[in-house]
Write a structure and sequence with these properties.
By secondary structure, the protein is mainly α.
Length: 288
């Protein structure tokens, strides 16, 4: 049986309904309070530290996102930890919740295809996260202007906007995973546990396993160990394996966007002209 009309017929109705449900839900309110309270604590520490910095710093606003002060991590590090929780919290019961409430068959009985239903739910949840992150971004800009008294430059605004876009894409990755698991598992609790398990594995365990796997794939040259250096081949494998984690990719993207002085994200930044000649030759051969 061939479908008639557009596969996305009814997408706008699903989007508006789901967006209204997310914005007014207690779950979303609690997630927003968690993110805002934690982020404000990190911003307070960053502002307290930056107020002692001279206004000659051309990227003073960007440092609000990246500066950390013990015991709190930076604003970006907190978002890298909490954005997946928000995305999983909005997506783990997107489909199986409708099935358990016995409303899925009623929705699909309307002139709405599965494509429109899934896309509408995804876009509504992503728009909800985007609105929250945009409000948080405006809060950071406002607090920076209020307490630092230094207006941001055009490059700072552009880089902070790129940060916002990358953060929304980062949320979309975890939201897609949560919605996929919500279609695979009938139980919302199972989907939530599996989503959180994958997140914990990729965020906490994988960075510790990647160096060991890289060492097994490309054993380090003992000459580097004698000099107290890392083998470039092992470093490349470690970095590539760690990039399988969305959290690591998000961290590298934030480093490139919010740190204008960053020139490379590769593993070869430790190579200098003071290194022995065989080290530089090995580096150039393996890099080529």
């Amino acid at each position: 049986m061939r479908r008639e009309g557009s596969p996305f017929q009814g997408l706008s109705a699903v989007f508006v309904k789901e967006l209204a449900d997310h914005v007014s839900s207690i779950r979303m309110l609690m997630l927003e309070l968690l993110i805002v309270s934690t982020a404000l604590a990190a911003l307070y520490e960053a502002i307290s530290r930056l107020r002692q910095t001279t206004a000659e710093d051309p990227f003073l606003l960007l440092r609000l996102f990246t500066i950390d002060q013990a015991p709190l991590p930076s604003f970006v590090a907190i978002l890298g930890f909490l954005i997946p929780l928000m995305a999983i919290g909005l997506g783990f019961d997107a489909v199986n919740g409708e099935h358990n409430r016995r409303t899925l068959s009623r929705i699909l009985a309307q002139p709405i295809y599965r494509d429109a239903l899934l896309m509408g739910k995804f876009l509504a949840a992503l728009a909800t996260i985007g609105i929250s992150l945009a409000a948080l971004w405006l809060l950071v800009i406002g607090l920076g202007l209020l307490f630092l008294g230094v207006p941001p430059g055009s490059e700072e605004i552009a880089r902070s906007l790129v940060f916002l876009i990358v953060a929304i894409f980062y949320a979309g990755v975890w939201l897609s995973l949560a919605m996929l698991l919500s279609t695979v598992f009938r139980s919302a609790a199972t989907a939530a546990l599996v989503s959180l398990g994958i997140w914990l594995f990729l965020t906490v365990l994988w960075p510790m396993l990647a160096p060991a796997i890289a060492q097994a794939i490309a054993p380090a040259d003992p000459r580097y160990a004698l000099l107290g250096l890392n083998d470039p081949a092992t470093a490349v494998w470690t970095q590539e394996l760690q990039r399988l984690s969305p959290n690591d990719l998000f961290g590298e993207a934030m480093l490139a966007v919010l740190s204008p002085t960053t020139r490379t994200l590769g593993p070869y930044s430790w190579i200098s002209s003071a290194a022995p000649s065989w080290v530089r030759r090995s580096h150039s051969v393996k890099a080529s």
